Structures are given as structure tokens and as C-alpha cells.
Amino acid sequence: MTAVLLQCVNEVAARLSAIQGIKELEIMPSGDPAKFHALHIFYPGHDPSGEEPGATRYAANIEIVGFVENRDGAQAFADLAGLYAAAVASLLTEPPLGGIAETINEGSFRALTAPLANIRRLSFSLVLSLGFAAKRGDPAQPA
Amino acid sequence: MLPHEAVALAAIDTVYAQEAITYVGPGIAEPLALTVSWSDLQAPAFEGYGASTRSISCELLYADVPEEPDKADSRIVRGAEVYRPIDVTRADGMARWIVYLEHAEPLA
């Protein structure tokens, strides 16, 4: 069985990869994107948020990092804002992640410009808070 | 600048200011062919674990360009690539502009 956390991440990846203009999508990458627009998915971890007979509830964060490049700086930011909006629209639907999760909510958003770089590369970090449940003692089984 | 520093700087320029560029910018009617010091280094850290951006800069001597390079109105062509200034430092101690560059489109 696939751990529920992995089901969540795979569902996030499937939805983000369908966004128009995405040239690269990676889960837990260890380097920079090679093609733009790019989306990177990081799963930093989770904590148990509640116990009940037969089920453990988890509070997790998923970080989406988006990258764009454009020789026009204003257009690069417009691209970044559009990518952010598309990512949120694709992920914050009901039921959460098609029912795999119990909750999904938008968290902090931060945008950056690559400093003193030879190309105008911008990125955003979007943190989503995620709640899901699994069978107590078996994170691969839904609650 | 002390006399011996000027001598040393001139010697350094003789060795390193060998990159052929064409410069257009404020106060220049026609593209100007120059040889400049060119630097291509790893850029400062950015989002993510990689380090795939570069910091490209060159040095434009006060004696070579009539006015301060401008982000909007200056372009540097090196080979087939066109660059625009993104950061201009006035280095009076060396009598030159240190200009960081990014890839750009030619001026219209």
C-alpha cells in the first residue's frame, strides 16, 4: 500500500503538472530546475494532530516552489503571479485532494528574485497546510 | 589612486581587459567597440539547492564611456549575446564602472 502522505503528494503533483506552461515538475529535487516554468514539491514532514480509536490524524505542510524566467522583469513577475494563482486554483478544491486529505489550506507565500543573476529568474514558495488521517499504526491505510 | 597603484592597475588591465564587446549607451551616437575585463562567476545563493545562475560583470573605464551606464538605455553585445545592466557601481578608486549584466533583448 502507498502511504497516505505519498498519495497526497502524488495527487498534488498530478494536479500541478496539468497547469498550462509547466515544463518541469519534480518531487523533492536536490538541484535547480532546468526548464521554466517549473514547480518543485517538497514534503518537509508532519506531526500527529490527534488520536482516536483506530485512526491517527496528521498535520502536514507541503511546500510548492515555483520558478519562472523571462528577459523582461515585469513579465517575469506577471508569469510568477499567474503560476501561483494556477497552483492554488488546482489544489484548493473540494473535497480536499479528491478526498485523500481531510483539509488543505493556503499558507505563507514568499517571492524572490535571483540576485545578481545573468537571467531574470524569479521564484515563489507557497506553503500549504494539509490534514489527513490514516489507520492507527498503519500510515498506508486510510482511516 | 597612488602612482604605483595606477601602474599596477594598468598592468592588470593589459592582461585581463581582453574581452571584445560592443557598447551602446547614454552619450554614444554609434556602437562603441571596446575590450574590457569580463567576469563570469557563480551567482549568490537563491531558492533551492542548486547554483545554476551566474553573475556576469564587466568593467567600463570612465575614459571609454561618456556617461554612467543605464539600465534602460545601455546594452552590451558580446558574441551573439545581448546584455543589459542590472547593477552599476561607481568605482572611483579604479576610474571605472563595474556593471553586472543579465541577458536582454537589443534596444529597439
Question: Secondary-structure map with pairings?
Answer:
The complex is a heterodimer of chains A (143) and B (108).
Chain A: H1 4-17, E1 24-27, E2 38-52, E3 55-69, H2 73-91, E4 103-113, E5 121-135, E6 138-142
Parallel strand pairs in A: 1-2
Antiparallel strand pairs in A: 2-3, 3-5, 4-5, 5-6
Chain B: H1 3-16, E1 19-24, E2 32-36, E3 38-42, E4 54-61, E5 75-78, E6 81-91, E7 96-103
Antiparallel strand pairs in B: 1-2, 1-5, 3-4, 4-7, 5-6, 6-7
Provide the succession of SSEs of chain B.
HEEEEEEE
Radius of gyration of chain A: 16 Å
Number of self-contained structural domains of chain A: 1
Radius of gyration of chain B: 15 Å
Number of helices of chain A: 2
Instruction: Sum up the overall morphology of chain B in one term.
Output: globular
| CATH fold description of chain B | Thrombin, subunit H
The largest sheet of chain A, given as strand count, sense and whether it forms a barrel, is:
6 strands, mixed
Low-confidence stretches of chain B: none
Helix content of chain B: 10-25%
The helix content of chain A, as a percent range, equals 10-25%
Q: Can you tell me the number of structural domains of chain B? A: 1
Output the keywords.
heterodimer, A: 143 residues, alpha+beta, STM4215-like, six-stranded mixed sheet, 2 helices, B: 108 residues, mainly beta, Thrombin, subunit H, seven-stranded antiparallel sheet, globular
